[in-house]
Amino acid sequence: MSATGLIPAFADDEDPTKLINALRSQNGQGPLQPDKQLEKMAQDQANLMADAQKVAHTVSFGNDFVTRLRKFGIHGAAGENLCAGRSTVAAAYNVWMNSPGHRSNMLYPSFHYYGLAKATSPKRPNYVYWAIEFKR
Q: Which of 53, 65, 63 is nearest to 132 (CA)?
């Protein structure tokens, strides 16, 4: 079983809303707002990855991205960024910033909401799995 945690209060350099919205503002996009349903979906994915000890959009049978969208009642345009091995929000953000596909999710003009979560496995308690979900 993984250790879970919706992301708590942040120092300014670790606040995901500030990090993402600064990027969006610099690129002429409107801000994103945190969304509890997306946080639950992100937590589910982070837990699945930590339990399986792998980073993938489909960790096990029946848990693909589209199925998880349905499970959490999310409709319309959506995206997902994943990574692991980074211990802070800022470090995960930097991974996504340096990947064209992940960066485009953070800048996608139709997205208005996001949810971020992390999880660890008891087998590797210092190795953090991150998931961030986006929707219109």
A: 65
User: Residue 83 falls within a domain, yes or no?
Assistant: yes
pTM comes to 0.90
User: Hey, what are 54's tokens?
Assistant: 């792998």
Nearest-10 Cα torsion for 60, 82, 133, 19: 170
Judge whether residue 5 has pLDDT over 60.
Answer: no
The per-residue pLDDT for range 9-28, each reduced to its tens digit, is 455 567 899 999 999 999 99
Q: Which residues contact 13 (CB under 8 A, 6 or more apart)?
A: 90
Strands (E), the chain: 3-6, 33-34, 78-84, 113-121, 124-135
- Residue the block writes with tokens 């693909």: 64
CATH number at residue 91: 3.40.33.10
Q: How far is CA 17 from the centre of its chain?
A: 12
Angle at CA 93, nearest 5°, toward 128 and 57? 60
Establish if 100 belongs to a structural domain.
Answer: yes
